[in-house]
Here is the input.
Amino acid sequence: MRSLLFAASCAVLLSTAVAVPERAPVLVELFTSEGCSSCPPADRLLGLLDSYAIVLSEHVDYWDGLGWKDRFSSPAFTERQSAYARSFGLDSPYTPQMVVDGAAQFNGSDSRSADAEIRKAAARPRTSINLERSDAGLKVETQGAPRDADLWLALADSSASTQVKNGENKGRELRHVAVVRSLRKLASLKRGAAFARQVDLPPGSSSQRVVVFLQESGQARVLGVAMLPAPEM
Here is the structure.
């Protein structure tokens, strides 16, 4: 019942608070691991959110030595989560952790907090980001940043599944959405600076979704985000 209510409330949010046809321009990051038995409910919640916000699933690597190596894990995502832990004043990173627009964090299975924080984020002013994919790469354009900020590019598999053979989730088939396979900084922008550039995309990225977001320097609040879905095959 809670999931249905949450989905309904997200639909209301989308129709009343944000003038976009599908997803609200809000970035929801989930730090997760296939080795963590508390993570599958958060993975499922992210799947619901994928219809209402722009989501990224970032698999950390500190579970990899505890019975199951997550094939999607990366030390880069662990480093990013650790930076969030410092900025939020946490004792240490944890899974599952959800971060909305770099401004709020909570247990990744907490649908009520996700609902509330997406609403808050959607009501804030947003910096426009325009994306256009072509054979030449990705054209990225942004308005002038209201504060010093970093522009990031994430490439993500729209969906994935794994039959886990060991560890805390042994015997379970885990399903994921928006699994980040690449995350890189495109530029550091001073306050008021715009960005317009053709960006090269790596081989094999034509089947992935593209997410570009502008985040205050120091990995603080996300000022704007845009997504291009994976091309239909």
Confidence is low (pLDDT under 50) at residues 1-9, 11-21. Residues 206 and 231 are 7 Å apart (CA to CA). The helical segments are 2-17, 39-49, 75-88, 111-123.
